[in-house]
Amino acid sequence: MGAVYRARDPRLGRDVAIKVLPAAFSSDRDRLQRFEQEARTVAALSHPNIVALFDIGEFDGAPFIVSELLEGETLRARLDDGSLSVRKAIDSAVQIAHGLSAAHDKGIVHRDLKPENIFVTGGGRVKILDFGLAKLTEKDAVAAGLTTLPTTPPATQPGTVLGTAGYMAPEQVRGLVADHRADIFSFGAVLYEMLSGCRAFKGDTAMDTITAILKEEPPDPPAAESPIPPALMRIVHRCLEKNPVARFQTATDLAFALEGLSIRSGSEPAMTNVAVASPMRRRAIREGLAWGLALAGIASAAFLAWRNPRAGAIMDPPRVQFTIPPPSRTTFSIANTVTPFPSPDGRMVAFMAPVNGANTLWLRPFDSPESRPIASTERPLPGGSLFWSPDSRYVGFFTAMGMKKVDVSQVAAPAQTIWAGEAFNGPTAAWGRDGTIVFAETTSGRSLSRVSANGGPVAPATTLDASRNETSHRVLQFLPDGRHFLYQSLPGGATVAGSLDGEPPKEIVVAESKGLYSAGHLLFIRQATLMAQPFDVGRLELTGDAVAVANGIQTSSTNGVAAFAVSEGGVLAYRADVSRSFRFAWFDRAGRRIAQVGEEALWGQFSLSPDGRFVAAQRSESFGGNRDIWLLDIARGVSSRLTTDPVSEGDPIWSPDGRFVAFTIAARGVESIYRKDVASGEETVLMDSKTGAFSEDWSPDNRWLAYGTRSMLRMLSFADPQRSLTWLDDRFLKDEPHFSPDGRWIAFESTESGQYDVYIAPFPGPGQKVRVSTAGGGEPRWRRDGKEIFYLTQDGMLMSAAVSTVGSAMAPAVPQALFKTPIAAIELTLDQYAVTGDGQRFLIQVPSDATEAPLTIVLNWASGLHASSSARAR
């Protein structure tokens, strides 16, 4: 970026470095003015791990920078001799992280962090160079567009990708707006190189390197005399996550994680780093971004009010907010509601995220930088509720075989069965102080039951009220007295207070979601906003006014399930909605994108018409809003509404002749399946269900409609719509049944193997089912001649398996991988792709570049509400 000279400052009597930049920098006066402004900001940093900037000027049309003169060598020069020792790598990494943290606090992103821009002095001090060339992070959309200004030669025109190949984050490579998390990715590449002596991403050409950054994971470091601690490699991999949300969210967090690792490994960090740690942690607590031991202390303080000894007034503890990204190599669903559940003691949170296609239970202590899987041999039901024991020792959850608990204080503790029975379709439970658990094994057509936490007989806890047309109850939580509990009445969604002592139930509030009690308030959703209203737990009544707590909470418009939970003492955990739009695109069998179809919109589940001319798909005008069924004309790229109901529709499927579309309406616990004539618009109710019914496929002979109820696959007769038959019923979750073209077989997915796998079974039976997938899979689709089945794996790979009949049995071949789809987050129970009859083209929803929302944790969420309430009262 220019020539560097050693010079003498006669005024202060010191040696300095003068960097003369290319004259092209001064040809654009606006650019030069921005550069000067940024340089002045960097000069104000004054941090021991950032090279000091003394002055900036211009001479003969060439801008120059005056900075401190450093004696030593660049990190690149050191790495030319091979990798660093683990101790030296950690020490250097901590110093780099502190430097980045100081810059990011001022809104400055480096965007070109690499070994050439990191200097190691003779005394071991690490300095980050060339912050003066970074682009100051802008706050508005117009300024954000300036992030594509070049910083690397030879290009000097706007539109050039910022950074250096091999160290750029994926968002930089794509030319998107890059924030401070891009520096964290570059940091991960540098740390990987310090530990291994090899570059994390390297190709024969710059384009090969960029491809590696976008699509590949760095190889395992070569074996060395001093092995790299696994915890350190986990930090490296987290920095190198492709999705910015999955990385460390701040350099402060990163530095703290490295310091803790250094201390645990028995090394002796430099005193300067220890000195920096204390104010760093205090700053992290103030900003609500860190998760260290100090944060755990604040979590404990969540239960206490602070008293001012002079004024005698009650003062709220500080409100602390931070986020938790998906665990490494996982992703949070963008289709299903993901709810984090804080422990009663306010020290940790439990949530679910998939691992290799199987739903997995995770625990994240607030004093730890990482989440860890628990009860890893179990398979919690997707959509099922988690619940805690009052002492925070156990987490309870549901599997298809009943309700279980696991001791979170023990590593790899086996799960213990509380209740053995069939659970499906969103079970819920709450654990009382006396050891009583109130639960619902399903949200469809059931009241609540009660059982001891140690197991034993099951007794009724509630009774459905016929006068209110109740079809089911969903338990929410116990109230502080340990006798009353909150539950949700369906349909309608009212939050009701029940009692273990048999008192009559009392309705509390009707809202768009469940209602939960915490810190003297009832929390519930109104128009995607989390509201809090004072609640008298003695009288079981709302008092005062409702106030907004958080916006954009992920909420299902179908069943009112909302992604938030609270602890009694004041820890709030939630997940915000993710506004991600899609566009349909055609792909060939090699994974090449052939063409795109229609406009970008908030598309959902879809199916392709038998003649391949139209798509029937869910679509909403706003994320989390009402979803209608739309028809997309593939040739013209034009879409139009098929339904306009005030409730959401889903699971669209075509009749074999393309005349009708069947779909499901799910409204607060009651599912109905409708059929609509595409030409005339005439609509017919096929069935109403109080036990759950989701339209799946239409038989080729036009006689049957397959629908699912979680553990059962059933058939609706078109000849007699009042008649249904159960085709397959066992205790395993099943979904996505699809008829073979000749109607003799059904391909479906089941959790019989412990994860979703694809099976084939004869229809109408009897006969033995045959497993098709070998390592998990779902969403099976047939080729038109019935000789090939396609399916998706959890990591988005599209698979193909040739199938043939041997006698009266089906014989699938070994599945073959076709290509990795661009589907953002695989949900194997949804319709996320379609295949043409000849099996040569695939219609896939390609997501926009919106990032996925992490989990948000708020300690002392009610801080300040008491003062506000008092002010309104006065």
Structure characteristics:
alpha+beta; globular; 36% strand; Methylamine Dehydrogenase, Chain H; 3 domains; five-stranded antiparallel beta sheet; Transferase(Phosphotransferase), domain 1; Neuraminidase; 874 residues; seven-stranded antiparallel beta sheet
Query: Could you tell me the number of beta strands?
Result: 58
Roughly how many Å is the radius of gyration? 30 Å
CATH C-level of the largest domain? Mainly Alpha
How does CATH name the architecture of the largest domain? Orthogonal Bundle
Integer count of domains: 3
Uncertain segments of ≥5 residues (pLDDT<50)? 132-162, 263-314, 867-874
Per DSSP, the total helix count is: 12
What is the overall pLDDT average?
79
Tell me the strand order in the biggest sheet: 38-37-36-35-34-57-56
Largest sheet data: 7 strands, antiparallel
* Fourth-level CATH superfamily of the largest domain: Transferase(Phosphotransferase) domain 1
State the CATH topology of the largest domain: Transferase(Phosphotransferase), domain 1
Q: Which structural class is indicated by helix and strand composition?
A: alpha+beta
Task: Please explain how this structure is put together.
- There is one protein chain.
- This protein is of the alpha+beta class and 874 residues long.
- The protein has three domains: 288 residues, Transferase(Phosphotransferase) domain 1 (Transferase(Phosphotransferase), domain 1, Orthogonal Bundle), CATH 1.10.510; 265 residues, YVTN repeat-like/Quinoprotein amine dehydrogenase (Methylamine Dehydrogenase, Chain H, 7 Propeller), CATH 2.130.10; 266 residues, 6 Propeller (Neuraminidase), CATH 2.120.10.30.
- The protein has twelve helices and 58 strands.
- A hairpin with a 6-residue loop joins strand 45 and strand 46.
- The relative contact order is 0.07.
